[in-house]
Amino acid sequence: MPAVPLSTFPLEPSPAEYSMKYADFDIVFQEVPGEVSLALNISHCPNNCPGCHSAYLMEDVGYELNEQSLEQLLDRYGSGITCVCFMGGDRTPFEVARLAEYLHTGRSHPLKAAWYSGKSQLPEGFPLQWFNYVKLGPYVAEKGPLNKPTTNQRFYRVEKDLSLTDMTEVFQKK
Q1: What single-letter DSSP state applies at residue 161?
Q2: Residues 11-39, buried b or exposed e (16+ Cβ, 10 A)?
Q3: Cβ 120 vs Cβ 136: under 8 Å
Q4: How is 80-135 classified by DSSP, letter by letter?
Q5: What's the rounded Cα separation, in Å, for the pair 20 and 166?
Q6: What are 129-146's pLDDT values in tens digits?
Q7: Which of 85, 83, 91 is nearest to 112 (CA)?
């Protein structure tokens, strides 16, 4: 499989980029195959995809997302959650990665981490080792979402050697 290209995200985020908010959350079963995921809808999306089904996430709204608020959400569901799926966070990709690292190393019961990015490429210098799954690609209405064979979006499983296995077809089988 060809390597996923890197983009021109900044290598070091500015202090303002450390603040990240979630607008809402849900427990989901389809976004990450085989996982029961706490999906966090990250606000202040910079992508402005035409036809976005969650346009409210373009606004800087919601609640601060950090280790404490993440633990409060996880405490609600106990061991029923197997993965945390960050839906967005393209304005603060290194903060998403920092929280994914926390899920792997800062907890007595580590959890898997997934990131749904609206960018077509991973940020340069992105610490992929803290993720189990990544979805790349903006929503393009005429191409459709992950469950359409025409989609431009790709869903990957991150392997131990940090290679990416394309699992997009799993979404298209029904």
Answers
A1: T
A2: eebeeeeeebbbbebeeeeebbeebebbb
A3: yes
A4: G--EEEEE--TTSHHHHHHHHHHHHHSSSS--EEEEE-SSSSBPTT--GGG-SEEE
A5: 28
A6: 999 999 999 999 999 999
A7: 83
Amino acid found at 72: Q
Confidence of residue 120 (pLDDT cuts 50, 70, 90): very high
**Of 115, 123, 119, residue with least CA distance to 156:** 115
Tokens 């995809």 identify what position?
49
Tell me the pairing of strands 154-158 and 133-136.
Answer: antiparallel
What one-letter code names the amino acid at 50? P
Domain boundaries, the chain: 20-172
From residue 34, give the alpha-carbon distance in Å to each of 30, 137, 144: 8, 21, 23
